[in-house]
Design brief:
420 residues, 13 helices, globular, NADH Oxidase, binds flavin mononucleotide, six-stranded antiparallel beta sheet, 15 strands
């Protein structure tokens, strides 16, 4: 089973060599959306728990400066540091906020008030349109930020990055003791129009932190202007979005996952998280490996939970035979470092790691399965940092050759490498 778009955007040894990707850096879009026409802002203040909760969803944690350019890194990793995901939220009956729609203005570490609710709200986009007292955090993607570099394959990265954003939400909700449910099933087209997105930006998912009330919300009357700059249209991505909008036979999962991190250290972890650029090929402990697996595979609460498998190339784990594993079972014994590196488009990260994971699915619900892979990736990132080992997401891999080695007909969604 494979989604048509996924098939068409596979990397292979030949495709990489036959169509080299030349980038025009002068066309790179900004990674920061700013609603200049709105002036009502709340500067996020580190003394407020609720402000801190918002900041950890995607705030800036580092600045990189190179001659003539600077860019920001955030609580989220992002393929190529392109950050295609934008964060909006609705607030209802929360102290310190007017009821309304806000945009997380990452550049200015603040939130901008875009619209005042007046008996209406985004709940009208949900089947069970009960008013939510609390937060509804909405995630969209401006796909050109990614397709500018990754071309047609860019939609995959948008979905993974959005999954990472949901993972950051899970982490921040855990830190500030909020229960959070992820939802993929809502009228995204209606909301895309209300937010004035045109064809350039679209919603992918949301997280609900709040209590459903008895009153129903029937309408949403907001009409924002499109403020996205010029972009280059990608028809394949727009079609892939449309073709994967309708979710089929979704199974909801409402099992709450308990985490038991030392909260102060976990908070530091969120701020310190970075992608490792180079591994030393050293071993990690079996306990670290098992903890990463256990946390990665804990249930994710959502209204469309898709099965994602975690294949593991165990390269260097103390007390474990090297080999390829699935669900704790060794499928093939052997030293597959070279193969793992090759599958990751010959990146040393896949070869020199202690473990290289590949996440796969046979799900028909492409958007939710892909975002779940990003959530799992985010858990692996945070846990690695917490355990003082390194991690990097790997979105570039040879699809069919990896599949053949894993002996699976599932789609390969993501690679993630950990080690020291
Ligand atoms: C979906 C995704 C795919 C990525 N793919 C690669 C990759 O193939 N190779 C690589 O070296 N880094 C990869 N990265 C790491 C990013 O380059 C990194 O997250 C980004 O530069 C931001 O840096 P930070 O994670 O240290 O904040 C990926 C990250 C994500 C989230």
């Amino acid at each position: 089973m494979s989604f048509d778009y996924h098939q068409k955007t596979k990397h292979s040894y030949e495709s990489i060599r036959n169509s080299p990707n030349h980038l025009d850096w002068s066309l790179q879009p900004s990674a920061l959306k700013i609603y200049n026409q709105f002036e009502d802002i709340i500067k996020l203040d580190g003394k407020s728990d609720i402000h801190n909760f918002i900041y950890r969803l995607g705030g800036i944690t580092a600045k990189k400066t190179y001659p003539g350019t600077e860019y920001f890194l955030r609580t989220l990793p992002s393929a190529g540091a392109l950050f295609p995901v934008e964060i909006y939220f609705q607030v209802r009956e929360v102290k310190g906020f007017k009821d309304g729609i806000y945009h997380f203005d990452v550049a200015n570490s603040s939130v901008k008030f875009l619209y005042a609710l007046d008996g209406d709200g985004v709940e009208s986009a949900f089947n069970d349109n009960r008013a939510v007292k609390g937060f509804i955090i909405l995630y969209s993607t401006i796909y050109y930020r990614s397709s500018w570099k990754y071309k047609d394959r860019g939609f995959r990265y948008c979905l993974l990055d959005c999954g990472h954003a949901l993972g950051a939400l899970e982490a921040s909700a855990y830190l500030y003791n909020h229960a959070c449910v992820i939802r993929y099933q809502f009228d995204k087209i209606m909301l895309n129009k209300a937010f004035g997105f045109g064809d350039q930006e679209f919603f992918l998912s949301c997280g609900i932190l709040g209590i459903p009330k008895t009153d129903r919300i029937e309408t949403f009357n907001m009409h924002l202007e499109d403020i996205n700059p010029q972009f280059e249209r990608n028809e394949m991505i727009e079609m892939a979005y449309q073709d994967s909008l309708d979710l089929i036979s979704c199974k909801s999962k409402y099992t709450f996952s308990e985490f038991s991190f030392h909260k102060e250290i976990f908070e530091e972890t969120i701020f310190k998280r970075r992608s490792i650029r180079e591994f030393t090929t050293s071993t990690i402990t079996k306990a670290s490996y098992e903890t990463v697996l256990e946390i990665a595979l804990k249930p994710v609460m959502s209204d469309c939970d898709e099965e994602v498998q975690l294949y593991c190339f165990v390269n260097a784990v103390e007390g474990m035979e090297r080999g390829l594993y699935l669900n704790g079972k060794c499928l093939k014994e052997g030293d597959f470092r070279q193969k793992a590196g090759y599958f990751c488009l010959e990146q040393a990260l896949g070869r020199e790691s202690a473990v290289t994971f590949f996440l796969t699915t046979r799900s028909q619900n492409y958007q939710s399965a892909y975002q779940k892979a990003g959530i799992i990736g985010h858990r692996i990132y945070l846990l690695s940092e917490y355990l003082k080992i390194g991690c990097s997401g790997i979105g570039a891999y040879y699809d069919d050759e990896t599949k053949a080695f894993l002996q699976t007909d599932e789609m390969i969604l993501y690679g993630v490498a950990i080690g020291t």
